[in-house]
Amino acid sequence: MARTHRLFLPDLDAQRDDLVVTGDEAEHARRVRRAAEGDRVILLNGAGLVAECVVASAKRELALRVVERRTIEPERPMVEVFAATPKGSRADEMIDALSQAGAHSWTPLETKLSVVEPRKNKMERMTRIAAESAKQSVRPWIMRIDEMVSFDDALASSGGARIVIADQSGEPYTPLPGGSERVRMFIGPEGGWTDGELARARDAGAMVASFGRHTMRIEVAAPVACAIVIDQERRAAPGV
Prior knowledge:
This protein is an alpha/beta fold. It has helices spanning 23-32, 90-101, 120-136, 151-156, 195-203, 218-236; strands spanning 4-8, 18-21, 40-44, 49-58, 62-71, 78-83, 105-110, 144-145, 149-150, 162-172, 182-187, 207-210. The protein folds into two domains: 4-71, CATH 2.40.240.20; 78-236, Alpha/beta knot (3-Layer(aba) Sandwich), CATH 3.40.1280.10.
């Protein structure tokens, strides 16, 4: 029985009907995934292009024949997650979960009580994790990983997005009538928000929302909140 494999190729040629995959992706598909002639392959470029292919040969290189290709628009709503960075491998878990939940982007957030400032190598690893997660979940658009910003700058640069700050003092999340195209979600550090940060968020028009009865770690709170927002916003969208 033919199997299905998924490959991430950021330089995927949208025009060619015959493709040759080399390098790490080909090696992984051939040696680890045991790709064989006749197997189905889904190619993703991380920017909306999806190509469904059949393996023509699986030797040193992976030769593919394109059966169908399509370009998919970014999903709506776009949920931009601004979250404090968890310690150690918990940050990797958060990125993987946020990608699977459907977050548009993640930006490390500098707050009064933040304790982790991700360095260049950590940010690069998170970008790789986002790419791997997109491949695993057949996500056409890779979740964007942005540079760290301060809490106040993140509030000021929202550009018309609905601002939501997660805090147990708030009410359960409710969308605006008709839904929102973009939601900027703020997830605080383990020490929580200061009174001043919550006050400035409210002054900026933010909704203070609670996403559960229990206190969650950052790497749990971020994807849980993201999934709830996406679900509620889609239900509120016209025609749904």
